[in-house]
Amino acid sequence: MSDKPRSPIESGCPDGFQYIHPVMRKNYGAWKFHEHPQPGVLRHVGYSGDEIWTVRVGTQRILDIFSLRELCDIGDEFADGYIHFTIRSNVEYMVADPAKVEPLIEAITAKGYIVGGTKNSVTMLSHTQGWLHCDIPGTDASGVVKSMMDELIDEFRECNMPNRVHITTSCCQINCGGQGDIAINVQHTKPPKINHDLVSNVCERPSVVARCPVAAIRPAMVNGKPSLEVDEKKCICCGACFPPCPPMQINDAEHSKLAVWVGGNHSNARSKPTFQKLVAAGIPNNPPRWPEATAIVKNILAAYKDDAKDWERINDWIERIGWPRFFEKTNLPFTKYHIDNWRGARNSLNASTHIRF
Ligand code: SF4
Ligand code: SF4
Q1: 241: Cβ below 6 Å to ligand 2?
Q2: Ligand 1: distance of its center to the CA of 174 in Å?
Q3: pLDDT one-digit tens code per residue, 101-134
Q4: Residues 188, 237: contact at Cβ < 8 Å?
């Protein structure tokens, strides 16, 4: 046996650089500036003098093999043989010759795809994996995205928002997704229902007990079998116990709702990063088109478009006008559900007599 350590077997993602357009590869990290000649098109200029044009395209998000082949064929024929997917499932084509931009856009639109999603537009909603890849969703996030983007198609195609708008979805209440200018998140409203016959066979009870953020789960013997019980007065209906213990079913056709949150911002480019805040709760989780949630999102976007100053993101706009004005302008009702009345909220509420700014 060799005494040399065995080198690792690389079975992860291949190096992405080999798939990048050669002009992008050559100028990586050495761009002088970029500009936005028209909606959906970006022009980057490198210190080397090289230029590259990017055309951004919206898709239906969940892509079947026929659409993928079609998109790749467009790349082969009109875009130097390269195609790129953004984290919001937009497709980007890059060409090094400005004369190729218009034929590329014509080929894209001839196949029924939409060019847009750049600068101050509403770009594609990002969404979490949903039914396709995950085992705990309470809604079909990709369906919500498709339904909303169908209604926001003009906002994707044109750049007439005060600043860029990033909308996100999240199909459970605890894990990925859900931090954007506007976020559509699942909201469970009832504690989990426990199937006691299955718990002892399926669940590791200590890890389920440990999982609950408010210590509402206790071990219990039910019908002579080891099981669990939930203190429903403590439960905040977060759904964190459902992934490690599927017999604690929390998804419910009637009581799993959607909620809309606004003002989340990861970036600290112009202002500090901010958490999103709840503005609409108890919205029906209503497939296949989710009209109630879509109407609320469109309403918020219309108020933002009408009232915000240029370059204000949604959180900047609300910060300037204040939350009472936000609820007035959007006609959203302010209800008891907007108040953080959880027993642990003492730490986050202003519970002292000091005035804080
Ligand atoms: S948001 Fe939750 S349900 Fe949706 S993909 Fe992520 S972990 Fe799964
Ligand atoms: S839903 Fe959340 S709060 Fe309720 S019992 Fe499960 S983990 Fe605890």
Answers
A1: yes
A2: 8
A3: 999 999 999 999 999 999 999 999 988 888 888 8
A4: yes
